[in-house]
Design a protein that fits this description.
Radius of gyration: 36 Å
Catalytic activity: Ca(2+)(in) + 3 Na(+)(out) = Ca(2+)(out) + 3 Na(+)(in)
Number of domains: 3
Helix content: 55-70%
Number of helices: 11
Membrane topology: Multi-pass membrane protein
Number of strands: 4
Largest sheet: 2 strands, parallel
Structural class: mainly alpha
Mean pLDDT: 74
Distance between the termini: 104 Å
Keywords: Antiport, Calcium, Calcium transport, Calmodulin-binding, Cell membrane, Glycoprotein, Ion transport, Membrane, Metal-binding, Repeat, Signal, Sodium, Sodium transport, Transmembrane, Transmembrane helix, Transport
Strand content: under 5%
Subcellular location: Cell membrane
Order of helices and strands: EEEHHEHHHHHHHHH
GO molecular function: calcium:sodium antiporter activity; calmodulin binding; metal ion binding
């Protein structure tokens, strides 16, 4: 008499195939199935007929096949419906266990989704606590392990370098006040004041070391006012699945600086001088040369971005390591060339327009 294997199996929730050695006891002369059956989570199909590779006895086989012929259609219909089909003298308890790897993955996704939704704060207290607290950098490996990551030495250095600005902007009203309008107005005002302060500080610094205003503007002022846009583009490139937000932020900020910044300032100055009965004139200086050089380099950058859409690279940002590093080096060299040529033209080492 064929022995019965343990009628108990455990299947992981993630759908990993399991193997069950269910052997039916039909007596010394009966047929028994020894072919393992594969199971997935939530599915169980145990056939009563022996297939290829099945051991058994032919005693009474013809009588059994005649008895089964009338039930073939019904069993096939039940199997197609996805219901368990159990043979005679076969019992099994299937326990679907929770997959810890799958659970950790789901918990990690839910955590990131909740953090993405919490884009604001509820009180000034939370803002100041966050500003003076040293937080660790994001690391996916530590999130999967479920352990809280401790701040590194680099995190402490960056915190103490930026704690003044963190505390300063912690005075911005929380996003819950006035549906976010208080935060928007105050933050824009503080950014404007900080930009004006950086501009005046850079101008005094250039005057102290003997730099012309045009050189100070393209080096220190432009660099200081563009750093926030750079970090904003970095965050957008990491969080979004495409490059629209990061590149659009760069082009949009340039458009705002040129059309809105210069346009509004010069319009106010023109209206003021016209009201007092005198004309308003601005010396172009090295503006023509700088704008022409900037336009040429901008066309080069746009051409590179269009070339990066080729299938072997895949897009404007990211891609294989070698094209990514080459693009970074090219854009950085264009910025250095722009500064060098603008400075040489400002000090009359090369002839401008």
């Amino acid at each position: 008499m064929a022995a019965m294997s343990p009628h108990f199996t455990q299947l992981p929730h993630s759908g990993v195939s399991g193997v069950s050695d269910v052997i039916g006891a039909g007596g010394a002369g009966g047929r028994w199935d020894g072919k393992p059956a594969n199971h997935r989570a939530g599915e169980l199909a145990l056939g009563r007929q022996a297939g290829p590779g099945t051991s058994g006895s032919d005693h009474g086989a013809e009588e059994e096949e005649e008895a089964l012929s009338g039930k073939d259609e019904e069993e096939r219909r039940i199997a197609e419906m996805g219901r368990p089909m159990l043979g005679e003298h076969v019992k099994m308890e299937v326990v679907i266990e929770e997959s810890y790897e799958f659970k950790n993955t789901v918990d990690k996704l839910i955590k990131k989704t909740n953090l993405a939704l919490l884009v604001g704060t509820n009180s000034w207290r939370d803002q100041f606590i966050e500003a003076i607290t040293v937080s660790a950098g994001e690391d996916d490996d530590d999130d999967e392990c479920g352990e809280e990551k401790l701040p590194s030495c680099f995190d402490y250095v960056m915190h103490f370098l930026t704690v003044f600005w963190k505390v300063l902007f912690a005075f911005v009203p929380p996003t819950d006040y006035w549906n976010g309008w208080a935060c928007f107005v105050v933050s824009i005002s503080m950014i404007g004041l900080l930009t004006a302060f950086i501009g005046d500080l850079a101008s005094h610094f250039g005057c102290t070391i003997g730099l012309k205003d045009s050189v100070t503007a393209v080096v220190f002022v432009a660099l200081g006012t563009s750093v926030p846009d750079t970090f904003a583009s970095k965050v957008a490139a990491i969080q979004d699945h495409n490059a629209d937000a990061s590149i659009g932020n760069v082009t949009g900020s340039n458009a705002v600086n040129v059309f809105l910044g210069i346009g509004v300032a010069w319009s106010i100055a023109a209206i003021y001088h016209q009201y007092h009965g005198r004309p308003f004139r601005v010396d172009p200086g090295t503006l023509a040369f700088s704008v022409t050089l900037f336009t040429i380099f901008a066309f080069v950058c746009v051409g590179v971005l269009m070339y990066r859409r080729r299938p072997e690279i895949g897009g404007e940002l990211g891609g294989p390591r070698t094209p990514k590093l080459l693009t970074t080096a090219l854009f950085f060299s264009l910025w250095l060339m722009y500064i060098v040529f603008s400075s040489l033209e400002a000090y009359c080492h090369i002839k401008g327009f």
